[in-house]
Amino acid sequence: MNKSAAGVPSALLVGGVLTLLVAINPVSTDTLAPGVPALRDYFGVSTSNANLVFSLYVFAFGFMQLVYGPIADRFGRRPVLLVALILYCAATLLAAVAPTFEALLIARALQGASASAAPALARAVIRDLYGVDGSRRVMSYVMSAFGIVAIIAPAIGGVLVAWQGWQASFYFCLVYGIFTVSAVLILLKESRPEDAPTKLSLRTTFVLYARLTPNPAFALNCVSNMLMYAAMFVWLSGSMLVIVDGYGIPVEIGGLFFAFGSAGFMLGAGAGGRLGARFGAPSLIMSGSLIAIAATIILLILALSGIRSGAAVALPALLWMFGHGLHYPQSMAAAVAPFPRTAGAASSLIGFYQTCAGAVAAFIMGAFHDGTAVPMGGLMLVLSVLALVAYAPFYRRILRNQTAT
Questions:
Q1: I need a labelling partner for 67 at 20 to 30 A (CA). Which of 117, 119, 165, 234 fits?
Q2: CA distances from 146 to 60, 109, 258, 295, 368 (A)
Q3: pTM
Q4: Domains in the chain, start-ordered, CATH in brackets?
């Protein structure tokens, strides 16, 4: 490992750059979410087709993580990040000026393909710099800080859409991308471990993925993480359809309600960072799932009672995202930690699985949307329950096997 990376520049500045990288995904999705109803009407497409701006983005985002991780293990984190971020800026500009819906979808796919390098390699850098034990703590703090960005993004998106239309959200993402490129260029030093792989081949890469996927520690955390991530994408793609489209709330106000979810995630991730060392990752993962289940039950009760207000959606979402904030950093770090030499590949693989699940969830949400919060709450409840069921019966056995080896 490049020992100077942790100290020059300061750890605080490095943490800021890592936060920018991790936050590029919610910036690229949350600022657009308030504009989906307007985008749908602008191009004259159906709700399920309009949600393809999320599905294609995350499919490309997930697939390209399979590529970026091994490349960064071979050539270094910093150069791969710089190239990908420059491509992200170009794709974002193309999306802003897209003349047709088909052109917008192509630009969104390119945007997702390039954006995926940022969080995948940020997680690898965290593992490089802070090791197995420190990575869980640092990941929670970074995710808590990124939650501030995620809170602001939908509120900004709502104001921009109300002011200048859905295209304005892409111009905001372009400015964010340029700023992030500059931060990486100036502040982020190379952290690739000295014993990382020195050769790169497609066959070797997929053999590595085939070996990682069935690893019990990886699979246990990955499946639970993937299901919760899919539930989060149900909220992401469905909340503004419910609040703005179904309940008739102005888009700029809807963006503020949407931000409640991000606030919950920030609080949950921050709490996880403080409590992780005391209670351990399994306790936080299961607690996060249980809180998420309770929140979606509340959301469904309010929706089935006929309460059609933004608060009836946003307040349960704040609680759900608090649970997700406890769950996500811990399950992510636990999945990557056993693989120090191939942290980039492990991070990319779990990113691929979670974003593919999110893409499917977004499309299903668009197909089942009926103007109420019932389909959204029902899907989130099922996925949250599955996340707990996939983890709780098995984690003790996995921990015993890790201790034995």
A1: 234
A2: 22, 23, 16, 22, 30
A3: 0.76
A4: 8-185+215-404 (1.20.1250.20)
